[in-house]
Amino acid sequence: MLVLAERIPEWMEQANVPGLALTLIQDAEIAWNGAFGARDSASGEPVTPDTLFEAASLSKPVFAYAALKLCETGALDLDAPLADYVPDPYLPDEVRCELVTMRHVLSHTTGLPNWRPKGKPLRMHFAPGERFSYSGEGYGYLYAVVEHVIGQAPVDHVRANLLEPLGMEHSRFVWTGQEDLLVALPHDENGEPRKKGLWPKMNVAAGLHCTSADFGKFMATVMRPRAGNPAHLSADMTRDMLTSQVQVNDSAPWHKDWPRPEIKLDDLVGWGLGWGLQHTARGPSFWHWGDNGRYRAFAVGFPESGFGVVVMTNGEKGQRVISRILRQAIGGDYPGLDWIERAYAG
Fold first, then answer.
1. Contact call for residues 46 and 20 (beta carbons, < 8 A)
2. For residue range 42-66, what is the model confidence (pLDDT) as tens digits?
3. What is the pTM of this model?
4. Is residue 86 a contact partner of residue 143, using CB atoms and an 8 Å limit?
5. Domains of the chain (ranges plus CATH)?
6. Are strands 265-271 and 276-280 parallel, antiparallel or unpaired?
7. Which secondary structure element, helix H or strand E, spans residue 237, and what is its range?
8. Distance CA 328, CA 132 (A)
9. Which residues contact residue 92 at a Cβ distance below 8 angstroms, ignoring those fewer than 6 apart?
């Protein structure tokens, strides 16, 4: 831990990343929390264990977990068309959208783009299940279905049935500028602070605000579900969550030439129900990355050993620091991280 703690500030300085929080998990328990640098480079206010970061796309597996819990209660069916649950079609002029299921959403095989294009109509690019294509828009569809089925705001449901029972006391999907919360400010590529955006409505694909320790608690729950705990998924559903549904490919929706008709599959990286999955020398693991521009995050867990890492940063170049922590300080191979780096480079 000492060597790791000594190296991180150096890497942060080189990448102009002001603040970082790191949680290590061992035997599916929080083993160590580290807070580095400043939550606001202008004031010098430090990152503390209670500092919230925008978790960005780490939001997705949290909402996926809550949605799968609704499957266990019988409120939803993983393989039923989502169109069966709501009175109005999500895409009125697209017949293929009527075939989209929760399994398609959570495995990113809906055929929808990452986000609906500005000034242009939303449309599907593939038939559901045809291929992997990362989609926050799909999560927006699932959100609308969950809201209709449970008859209440999903933000309240997720807080009461997942965040609070798991002890994720600092986590929330809505942030309206509450001054009592220590939230890390975003910083640009030069390490200069920028205005923190508000999240007045729940965005299940990108809006979670939490500490690295809170997300570590969630990771530990995924690794070691406990029978009889109403907030935990069953062992069978957890196994389904961490079972690959599709292999990722080399055509990402943020590429200018997306969608390419010809794609190359990645043999080492697949996608389960809410999580990326990778085969490593340490064994199989689940992971996810977060990118809200000036907030970067990464989480990875190894169910067999109970080992995991959560890193959150408030700098545009945070991924550079994350990569060095995982590769140089902790070691091991991370095919999922390799895939992300290739996807952004492409």
1. no
2. 999 999 999 999 999 999 999 999 9
3. 0.97
4. no
5. 2-345 (3.40.710.10)
6. antiparallel
7. helix 235-241
8. 30
9. none
